[in-house]
Amino acid sequence: MTVAEAQLETYVADVVDAVTRVAPVAGAFVLGSALLGGFDAATSDLDVVIVVARPLGRDERGSVVEALEELASPVRRLELVVYAAGARPPAYELNYPDGDGEAPHWFVLDAAIAQERAVPLTGRPWRELFEPVSEAETRRAAQESLEWSAGRPANDEFARVNAVRARHYLEHGKWITKEEARA
Asked: CA 28, CA 68: separation in Å to the nearest integer?
């Protein structure tokens, strides 16, 4: 294990601990490029999903945010979504740091990919914590993602890569990494 990998592993454990201090954690998962491949701490977001055993109160959400803000991050940006066990994405408890303004299709896509590939860092498997996202829901979310990308400026690299990935899923039923989409 490299120093960078050890720092990342410690950071993810610290993120899980920050949530555990507020509510019992039923499962924790790394998603995005850290799961699919192509993760680079300098340029990638670190996508983490934590499932708690019960819904969080407003003060508890605030406590989690405060704890996260105190952590020294070895990555460009942490994107954490906390769900209560049994929730159906996008019905999250906390979306850090973006809050409530994100389009629902992002959460559905993450859930679809996670149910296919995610391995728990701690706790129970994804499929035991969430109802499965259907192929129809995934296709609808991929189409919405494609439409979102079409509405972005032509020089938006994230939107361009997202569009390639969404098109590939819609045509082939399989997700490709951001690296593959850039090729």
From this structure: 15
d(CA 79, CA 173): 26
Burial class (CB in 10 A: 0-12, 13-18, 19+), 126: buried
Mean pLDDT for 76-93 is 94
Alpha-carbon separation of residue 111 from 1, 64, 65, 173 (angstroms): 28, 22, 22, 15
Nearest residue to 84 (alpha-carbon basis) of 110, 52, 123, 59: 52
Say if CB 151 and CB 133 are below 8 A apart. no
* pLDDT surpassing 80 at residue 2: no
Contacts of 22 (CB under 8 A, 6+ apart): 52, 56, 60, 63, 64, 67
pLDDT of the residue at 176: 87
Token pair 């992002």 in the structure block, residue: 106
Record the tokens describing residue 148, joined without a space: 């979102």
What DSSP element (H or E) covers 100? none
The H or E element containing residue 13 is helix 3-20
Kindly write down the DSSP assignment for every residue of 29-89, as one continuous string: EEETHHHHS---TTTSEEEEEEEESSPPPHHHHHHHHHHHHHSPPSSSEEEEEEEETT--T
Q: Give residue-wise pLDDT tens across range 128-150.
A: 999 889 999 999 999 999 999 99
